[in-house]
Design a protein that fits this description.
47% of the residues lie in helices and 13% in strands. It has 246 residues and is an alpha/beta fold. Helix 4 (103-131) links the parallel strand 4 and strand 5. The mean pLDDT is 95.
Length: 246
């Protein structure tokens, strides 16, 4: 699946799923702009791509800030060219009992997890329209499909991402742009290891009885970004080892 000549933006790519996705898109030939709040991690991801003869830059940007997104988009266009692949991956995934979720906590999470994909897409879709070709891949979560105790705000935001995906796909289906969604389930990332979850015990409750790898998610994203997926849009491609069957 060649992505030669394509320019991709991956948000939240300083580590974990975002880094794996950025590395895979670069491996398939895309030039990648690595967006994240964490400068050091973003620079490291970009350096890993360049070390393997790829093209990459790092941009520090808050996915909830239209001004920072506009600046990152301008820098990306200047350094790499117009963007035709966008992976909306940046997200917060905290655990909190429902009674402890304040309005400020709710709003802060929604700003990153749901407003963020809207702002990033709004900033970059003009490039795709001009090219007559585009791929938008939104990273949701299996928690939006199954529910997740002590993650009401997170599950609600990620369910919103699925709805955002479907509606956007319908709007741009005749204009060369596909919009799809990947909801990972129980993937062995730094975020999972930092969460208040017994990874080994929870793995035994899943059909495959093991966590996924970030590369599993990256492979699904790479397919949806490719020309091979030009007749796939509005789709939710669950990569979760059977945690949720659809």
């Amino acid at each position: 699946m060649s992505l030669d000549g394509r320019i991709a933006v991956v948000t939240g790519a300083a580590r974990g799923l975002g880094r794996a996705i950025a590395l895979r898109l670069a491996q398939d030939g895309a030039a990648v702009s690595v967006w994240d709040l964490q400068r050091e991690g973003a620079e490291e991801t970009a350096a890993l791509i360049r070390a393997n003869s790829g093209r990459a830059i790092a941009c520090v940007a808050n996915a909830a800030s239209a001004a920072q997104i506009a600046a990152a988009a301008a820098r990306t266009r200047e350094a790499l060219g117009p963007v035709t692949i966008l992976v909306n991956n940046a997200a917060l995934s905290p655990f909190a009992a429902f009674e402890t979720i304040t309005e400020d906590i709710w709003d802060g999470l929604m700003a990153i997890n749901l407003k963020g994909p809207f702002l990033c897409t709004r900033a970059l879709i003009p490039d795709m329209l001009a090219a007559g070709w585009g791929r938008i891949i939104n990273i949701s979560s299996s928690s939006a499909q199954t529910g997740s105790a002590r993650q009401v705000h997170y599950a609600a935001s990620k369910a919103g991402v699925i709805g955002f995906t479907k509606a956007l796909a319908m709007e741009y289906a005749t204009r060369g742009i596909t919009v799809n969604c990947v909801p990972p389930g129980f993937v062995n990332t730094e975020g999972l290891r930092e969460a208040p979850v017994d990874v080994a015990a929870f793995a035994q409750l899943t059909p495959m009885k093991r966590p996924g790898r970030p590369e599993n998610i990256a492979a699904a994203v790479a397919f949806l970004a490719s020309d091979d997926a030009d007749y796939v849009t509005g789709h939710t491609l669950s990569v979760n080892g059977g945690r949720y069957l659809n």
